[in-house]
Amino acid sequence: MSNNNQKKLLVGRPNIGNRETFDRLVDDIFARRWFSNNGQMVQELEKRLCEYLGVKHCIPVCNATIGLQIVCHALGLKGEVLVPAFTFVATPHSVHWEGLEPVFVDIDPHTHLMDTDKAEALITPRTSAILGVHAWGRACYPEKLQEIADRHGLQLYFDAAHAFGCSHGGKKIGNFGRCEVFSFHATKFFNTFEGGAIATNDDELAAKMRLMINFGFTGLDSVVHLGTNGKMSEIHAAMGIACFETIDEIVRTNKAHYDRYRTRLSRLHGVRFLDYDDMEESNFQYIAIEIDASIARASRDEVMNSLHAQEIMVRRYFYPGCHKMEPYASLYRRLSDQLQATDETCEKVLILPNGTGVSPDDVDRVCHAIEEVLA
């Protein structure tokens, strides 16, 4: 028997693009019976991605993790790759899966981005690349990292999973480093159910990666390069095309929720918002706050547990830090004591529900629940 007094589960849900457009595109896919292998939908999505980002190439892939692995191969990386420890575990997984060693770098505790000075201090003769992460959609110091990479002869690329639609210096993210990899997973503000894309302005690199996502084929029976199956399907691309029709509405909704959260919660003692730069474009997807247990009336985990008890699904990101997950906790212990800012940040960050599946009343409900614990 259902409990009518029980509050509904409040959690950020996937954004849905223009449903009529999606249904029409699916009908087209069935009519053509072309479901994969660079069909019309994938080509159209790639065209729109390039126009939106202002890049020469934006190659759709089945997911961002495979995209990051393909980049490792395409750039010919060897030895060590510098990676922030404060990131989703797919970032170091993509490096380790390719037989490389992720060297974990601490973060700037104010921005949650890779500390560039600490990154440079970790460069050795075995280092081949820097993999920056644009946390919460905020650019990870691309000019400074490029300067370091050039000085040491390293490749620079970015995990831009959080940053589709965001900008830096007035230029859309997707234009920095050798290439940047986006995630279009269902949890992202712009999604293709499951998927991703690799953006680059390098013609030669793009040609190599196009070969690699399709087993290295150049023709019907001609394989000229090592490859894998990294292709995006037609139905996934159709979802992306449909999402483009509502992308501005999604961003407006995200920003309205962000502003509402910030107005209510920023006055609470011990709460710090990760602010967005008003001079840059942003997708406003991540409502990231820090709860400092040394100042606030409760710890981050106490707040989280209280909200979970009320059916409000807030999340700890990125907890407990990749260096404390396997296989890295066992394999690469030598830097674990140099990640103090990461460890401290992992104990503070809480991500609040956002997106078109969340209403203003839902935002107020979350705020009220947090205020009850902290006010």
How would you spell out the order of helices and strands? HHEHEHEEEHEHEEEEEHHHEEHHHEH
Largest sheet: 7 strands, mixed
Annotated CATH architecture of the largest domain: 3-Layer(aba) Sandwich
Number of contiguous helices: 13
- In the CATH hierarchy, what is the class of the largest domain? Alpha Beta
Which regions contain 5 or more consecutive residues with pLDDT less than 50?
1-5
**How many extended strands?**
14
Structure description:
This protein has helices at 19-32, 40-53, 64-74, 90-97, 116-121, 142-152, 203-212, 234-244, 247-265, 300-309, 328-331, 340-346, 360-374, and strands at 57-61, 80-84, 101-105, 107-108, 113-114, 127-133, 155-159, 167-168, 171-172, 179-183, 196-200, 271-273, 287-291, 349-352. The chain folds into two domains: 19-244, Type I PLP-dependent aspartate aminotransferase-like (Major domain) (Aspartate Aminotransferase, domain 2), CATH 3.40.640.10; 248-374, Aspartate Aminotransferase, domain 1, CATH 3.90.1150.10. It starts with 18 loop residues before the first helix and ends with a helix. By secondary structure, the protein is α/β, with parallel strands linked by helices. The longest helix has 19 residues, at 247-265. Helix 2 (40-53) packs parallel to helix 8 (234-244). It has 13 helices and 14 strands. The relative contact order is 0.17. The strands form four sheets. A seven-stranded mixed sheet has the order 1-11-10-7-6-2-3, sandwiched between helices. Residues 1-5 have low confidence and may be disordered. Helix content is 37%, strand content 15%. It is globular and about 65 Å long.
